[in-house]
Amino acid sequence: MFKLILEKKLMPNPYQKYLTKENKLQHSVITYINFQYPDLLYTHVANEGKRSRWEQYLIKYLGVKAGVPDLLIFDPKSNYNGLAIEFKIKYNKPTENQERWLNELKMRNWACFVIYNYDDAVELINKYYHNDL
Q: Of 7, 59, 85, 130, which is most buried by a Cβ count within 10 Å?
């Protein structure tokens, strides 16, 4: 039994090759949050990616909006109602829809940031969590 579990863990995930650098950055940050702040209430809205015509219809029908930030942290702090993070890699910039969402959330007293690397994300989350923003 142990050998089977060990072999399963050592086998590479066949989907790993499809992950982008941005996916890996976000996953690293989520791993940090789960370890450091296990009770933090957060989510990622899966509104990116290619979809069939049926899936496109369905997500619009159900209210999915383009541009929602990659990570939404719902725990209010003394200065903010929540934290929204849009992850980008290198010189990528937020789309017009993403900028609109970040601005709308700012108007609703959310802390909103575009983050390009793991260290900045961890620093931001720590500051937010400890009311140091």
A: 85
